[in-house]
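Input chain follows. Return structure tokens only.
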Amino acid sequence: MRLPHFERWRAFAAARYRPFQAIAVGQACTISYASDALFVPLLLKLGAAPELVTVVGAIPIAGSVTQALAPQILRRLRGNLRRLTLALAVFEMRGFVHAAVVAAYMIGLITAPVAILLVSATVAIGQTAGALSGSNITLWTAVVLHEEERRLVGPRMGAATMALSTLLLLPTGVLLDAGLRTIGLWSYSALFLAGGLASALTPYAVSQLPRPGRVLVRSGEATTVPLPEEFRRFSTASAIASVGQGLIPYLSLYSINVLHASAGYAVTLSAAGSGGALIGSMAAGSFLLGGSSSRVFRASLVLRALAALICASAFPGNPLALPILVIGSALFSGAGNAGVLAANERLYRLAPADLRVRCQSFYVSQNSVAFAIGAGTCALVLTLGAPVSWAAYSALFIGSGVCRSVSAWRTEVAASWHSPIVPPDNP
């Protein structure tokens, strides 16, 4: 296995990749101060039911099914991928809206139910657009950069995002707990405001991305060209894993609702997840330069099934429950991020250049529907299992592990760990 090389990071640090570097910084700030790490404990503090929080958090990923409309939208925009991505990137600044909602609640302008509704709507709309923005940026790297550059830039963008997110989240848990004891929910407003300001870097950086001209999207009879059968089988196996992803409840929700941990600990779980994602990105990103993307994807599924079992062992009464949950969070995110990188690499290796927009749209939409099925099941189980919540959460963890195991079994892999597509001497 190839370990991360300093030379590749030095290449990524080149001036021509400044926009991609800035996107990584902006997205790290959004993840830290305007996403799940904060809105989950906030909604619980406002009195939202756990199943509602699960549904709200699932909407952005499930909403990514609208990526299926990307080919039609791009045809209407005459292939202007830049304009579409920039419009979606503006929603990364949703921290401003979250901060305003919390401030309005604190000064008595709105009630707690109204605040829950507004925060939920902001998550549903803002994070859905943010997820689509991320998909389009990934697509951008696939259609604008040469293959070797794509393999260089994508994984290092993800690794840089996770590294900075980890650094930002580690002290945030302590600051949040201290702030809640002194200024109450104003601490959430301050963090959201900081997230909104820093996240403005993302749309600015997108506006500075290299102009690809027009991305040609097939129309008319050309759209009836069947997608490669091998790609469809891969997408189906991935969709089974996405059902398992949807089944997993927020670990921060589990820690607060079942283990009675603090909001600061919930943020620490997110920090552990970011740290694990960083390790996963660096390891997988380096290996995928010339390694088998299908085998990395299968290995990530096995590790995620193991993470589900680890989390199931963090039951009430276990004196090591909180540390175990931290390990589970790190493993989930580490294997998950490696799996996403491997899946994207597999997608673009299987998709012909002239079908990449269609293949990416099909893949994202199919997996979004599968995730929605899992998330809907998760919310239903939490609702029906409220009297015995630990058992309900454990059933979800185990169910997720089973889905990941089935997906690993269904995934077709290369004959060896070396990619048959990338030459062995690829630097």
